[in-house]
Amino acid sequence: MTTTDAAKPDAHYKAPQVAGYADVPYEEKARLFDLVKSDLRFGDYLYGCYECGICVAACPSARFYDFSPRRIAQAAAREDVELIYQQMQEDIWECSQCFSCLRCPRGNNPGGIITIMREVAVSNGLASAREALAGYSRIIYKIMSTGTQVSPDMLQPDAFPDWGPETGDVSANLDLWRRALPPETLHTTTTGWAVSDRTLIELYLIWLHTGSLDMIAEVDASLHAILQELMEERLEDEGIEL
Amino acid sequence: MSADTVAVIGGGPGGLRAADAITEIGGKVVLIEQRDFLGGTPIAENYAGLTPHGEPARPQIERMIEAVTSHPDADVRLGSVVTALSGEPGAYTLTVRGPAGDQLVECGAIVLATGFTHFDPGRETQLYGYYEYPDVVTLPDLESMLSQHQVVRPSNGQPPERVCFIQCVGSRDRHIGNEYCSKVCCGVASKEAIEIRQLLPGSKVYIFYIDMRMYGYWENEIYWPAQEKHHVQYVKGMITEVIAKGDRLLVRGEDTTMGRPMELEMDLVVLSVGMEPSAGTKQMARVLGVAQNKYGFIHAVGGPLDTVSTSRAGIFACGAALGPADLEDTVSSAAGAAMKAVGFLRRRAAVSAD
Known about the structure:
Chain A has helices spanning 16-19, 26-37, 42-45, 54-58, 61-64, 69-77, 81-89, 110-123, 127-133, 137-146, 166-172, 174-180, 197-209, 212-215, 221-237. Chain A is an all-alpha fold. In chain A, helix 6 (69-77) packs across helix 8.
């Protein structure tokens, strides 16, 4: 028997041994939800929910996972702190952020609520965020340090089992595939889009000043440290004081 | 007093609007009301604000009363009940028992505006404990509290922290026999929920429902603000029972869209009781010999494009005497019935003049 709100602060939806993630005190869950609610975008992303399910009908992820954008909107509308915590440890990483759910007749944006929940999960180092981002550390490093794109061989193939076995084959012989393509392309492992010094400096300033870099501090401390050192050193060389 | 007069039976919003409309188009009216005052259920049951806009009920109803009582062609009989009908269409005679004894009222046509009564939640089922627990109240009970600008638990006089409304009590139920939707309770409950949240901002207010039915502008005027601005919690799922737990009430139901059973503790449970034909509606149907439908409301014989004609020529009905109706429906059908009634007696007069 469950309750739908904080009537019983000790209530949880899954027993800790079943949940697959660490239980935390109710107050911590409430703090995380407060961070979600206090985000500037929240008021534009959630009005009221008819519970009609049109977002689920439109959702590609809902076809393949036990995932429902409706439950995301409902949990937020009902201020169901326990369920929201569960969703931040599980459901939100099953969304592909395609925003098909924007067809909501009330103007809700369940995908946008998930964006905020993910950001809070990342910046607070939730286990689910660590796990979800584990396969991305090389991508994060490349994008944040060079401001340019990644190529398939930079991915850790074991982090994306749902991409199928061919991904590994393609990555392993990427140079061959590149040469087989008729047009010239900069999508190589050795070169990238040229990024000017000025752009790179601006990017570093943005990562640092907006807190984008800090977001990953809780999920990957060593990556954060490497990037921070790299950026601060470069900015120092340019004579920019932080 | 004669065949150029319409008798209106019932002095609530429907009867008042009908009487007012009759005088507006140059007719004469006798308004017969069994209570000692005009205004009907909104006044008798101390409505706080009218649905949907929530403006105070009394001043608005008083304006309707004033329009009728101040008109020279309106004759108001309070504390009066119709006990017999004789004559024929266009020349009816009503026997009216009032403070001055039995009197005869001659009229060419009649408008029935005898309204509804709230479903008695002690009838048929005691599962919600209305007569058992003081903190289980009905929509009109809460309305009466709201008219005093306070909401408290009757058991201890303290403001409630957790309140829920249970919709469709006495409506849409084959066992009870009221298969119809009472039409207004979703809007009224939502309006009252908003008023509670305004009076007690720290409270948590739930509405448990089968379907929310707030038509037309009630959607954007009541439902959306209740949910979006006042954070009233709408949960699709009916409460099966209310039981005492400590000094609180435990409500049991299913949170259907979340797919889980729920048990919640409440300080105040509000039963959204539906509409049934009033005693006066059933009694007048018998006295005037007009047909009732299977639920006891006055049977409207004209289909969807004539909502006010009854089974008897020259007798029309309006408002909640015909079935569940909100105030907007009521005043609309009252004006329609007034037009029909005056038209009916003028045609009779034209035929007899030929």
